[in-house]
Amino acid sequence: MKHLVHINDFSVQELTELIKVGEDISVNTAKYSDVMKGRILATLFFEPSTRTRLSFESAMLRLGGSVVGFSEASNSSVAKGETIEDTVLTVEQYADVIAMRHPVVGSAERASQVLTIPLINGGDGGNQHPTQTLTDLLTIQKEKGTLHGLKIAMIGDLKHGRTVHSLTNAMSRFDNNKFMFVSPKELRMPDEIKNTLDADMYTEHESIESVIAEADVIYMTRIQRERFEDQAEYERLKDVFVLDTKKMQNAKDNAIVMHPLPRVNEIHPSVDKDPRAKYFKQAQNGMFIRMALIMKLVFETCEQNFTDDLIGGDNFAINENIKNSSRVSYERVAVN
Ligand code: NCD
């Protein structure tokens, strides 16, 4: 069973294929409008979310499928003491694919171990956020035309920010990318992520000014209040980096500014008008790439080749095959 728990669950080839399909979806969205007809996505969100949950839901709806789920643990049986395993084992009786967000590191891994339908990790604590990374890769590919040879400045809370952990894991597997990690010393990129990089692939900094002129991608992140043990430390560090129009004067003309959102203070709203600001487009790309991801995982569960006949042609040939194949859950009933 193919899940997406960690961004490294996908090879570079699989990432490249997904981005290609995501680009096609963003141009020819209507072509995919009933690919998931009759199928159900369950969204299990034990932690707050706007973009991730809504983009998953709109992705499934735009593919012609349906969505069930909850957006707060208090609305589910978890509030009665149910384990993650029991919750997902129940939900798999109803759905074809699950997207789950949970505050505990490793929760997605645990859930994936018991499931026989695909699980997508929508963020597990401060650990990984692989679908945000797919969103980021699609945005970089569309805006920069490549995923290779880029200088990427990651700025903010690199310790607790799961998006920058997953993005570093992914971009370091494409050729010749370099990372400039900018954070207060208390919030540095964790060693377990840096240890996956060669020493000449990254540098560490404590100011935006020291990197902005060199960066092709300026990736801003929020200081993650909810992950601090000491709230006084959060108060001290929360406004340490603010990207504003003055700092943007020193950025390259063809640099792009990204942010997984939500933003707090770290990008001044006046930057929004700068054509290099791509964070709202990035949110839209999140929906397109999640459409590609849902198709990939559901098709592969049905042993369909994800890319065969997918791009090109006016007709979506694979659609007929999928319609004719039995639903995942029915297959399981048949073998039991
Ligand atoms: C991010 C997350 O949840 O980690 N948000 C998102 O999914 N777009 C970033 C954040 O919360 O700071």
Explain briefly what this protein structure is.
With 336 residues, the protein is an alpha/beta fold. It has helices spanning 12-27, 51-62, 84-91, 107-114, 130-144, 162-171, 191-194, 231-237, 245-248, 279-301, 317-324, 328-335, and strands spanning 40-45, 66-70, 97-102, 119-124, 151-155, 178-182, 202-205, 217-220, 256-258.
The span between the termini is 16 Å
Strand content: 5-15%
Q: What compounds sit in this structure?
A: N-carbamoyl-L-aspartate
Number of helices: 12
| Morphology | globular
Order of helices and strands: HEHEHEHEHEHEHEEHHEHHH
Q: Rounded to an integer, what's the Rg over CA atoms?
A: 20 Å
Helix content: 25-40%
Low-confidence stretches: 313-336
Adjacency order of strands in the biggest sheet = 7-6-5-8-9
The number of distinct β-strands equals 9
* Structural class by sheet pairing and helices: alpha/beta
The biggest beta sheet is recorded as:
5 strands, parallel
- Mean pLDDT level: 91
3D architecture notes:
- By secondary structure, the protein is an alpha/beta fold.
- It contains 12 helices and 9 strands.
- It has a 5-stranded parallel beta sheet, with helices on one face. It has a 4-stranded parallel beta sheet with strand order 2-1-3-4, with helices on both faces.
- β6 (178-182), α7 and β7 (202-205) form a beta-alpha-beta unit.
- The longest helix has 23 residues, at 279-301.
- The model is unreliable at 313-336 (pLDDT under 50).
- Bound molecules: N-carbamoyl-L-aspartate (NCD).
- Residues 51-52, 123, 129, 132, 162-163, 222, 224, 260-261 line the site of N-carbamoyl-L-aspartate.
